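ESCALATION

Customer reports they have been waiting on this structure for their group meeting. Please prioritize. Original submission:
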Amino acid sequence: MIRVVGWDGSALSPAAVAALAGATLVVGGGRHLAAVDVPAGAGRVVLGDLAAGLDALATHDGDSVVVASGDPGFFGIVRALRRRGLDFEVLPAVSAVALAFARLGLAWDDAVVVSAHGRDLGPAVNVCRAHPKVAVLTGPDAGPAELGAALSGSDRTMVIGTDLGTPGESVVRCSPADAAGRHWAEPNVGVVLAADSMQRPAGWLAGAPPAPAGWALPETAFEHRDSMVTKSEVRALALARLGPRLGECVWDIGAGSGSVAVECARFGAAVVAVEADPAACELVRANAAAYGVEVRVVPGRAPAAFAGLPAPDAVFVGGGGVEVVRAVVALDRPRRVVVALAALDRVAPIRAALAAAGFAVEGTQLGAARLVELPDGGTRLAATNPVFLLWGLR
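Update from on-call: job pushed to the front of the queue and completed.
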């Protein structure tokens, strides 16, 4: 029988103690094996190599124990054991994330939990940019210093819990810039908070909020000037091609009223809106606030305004010409670019710029005719201005 014992720094449960006492093989990380009472005659396998540990468990004839951090079913070894087809029983402890929020005295049913352990840090950072309450499971080269460096300049507060549950635990609250300049002992977990994270009401769904109930909202849903807003029909197709989602970063260049930026943020993406007009920048901020989403507004003219921005996964170009598109596709990323054009003569050079950068390019003309009620109760069709939409996938 294999029993998976969670360890959170506190005394083990009677069931976990009994499991260890009867084990003839104990598998776990070095610090875990040092923290529990391993029977003198039992074999030990240190989990530096996961495959070797799984092999030992699969071939062992006798009772085995795996010692793991916190709740082994929460970003833990349970998944690997299940994939290997092993039968086991789990005796969980408190996860590091639960301990971190307990130390802060914060509810965490509305927190998004992401793992950067053994993974690219980028998606975790984008979630921290987009959401007000995020827990980050850290790892080598993706620890509090690297997370802080990526978030430096943001309005977030970081809380780093180290060795939680042990006599040597520490909980440090700091700015991202402070976190970037410090050395952090392991193991640790990070909590990233926006200023209003403690005031948000409870919802009905744990973790990330669900997808919006509707999108391609009518133009009247946004504050705008002189009808300078991306029409809903165009926005619908642009959103479909941009594919905004949790863990990704989207740029809206020439954002205008910010309708595309706000809709991308409603899908959970981290969003940057680049806009040269100061009055339009205020409209973007107002529209984002109206929908309770975060959009980073960057005043300035593209492509000069791109300097220092987080790498995008998708870009919408609603303003600017071939020069802007060439600057976008010259980046290592994005993978998806959508360009809206009113002028036919710009289609060919922008299509060529996308193709030259290795994008598979498609496009369409959108010219909607909307139903309008006449004074006598009848209905006519009112045409909107045609727009050319190009998109490239790489």
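Sent to customer with the following note: The chain has three domains: 2-94, 97-193, 219-393.
Escalation resolved.
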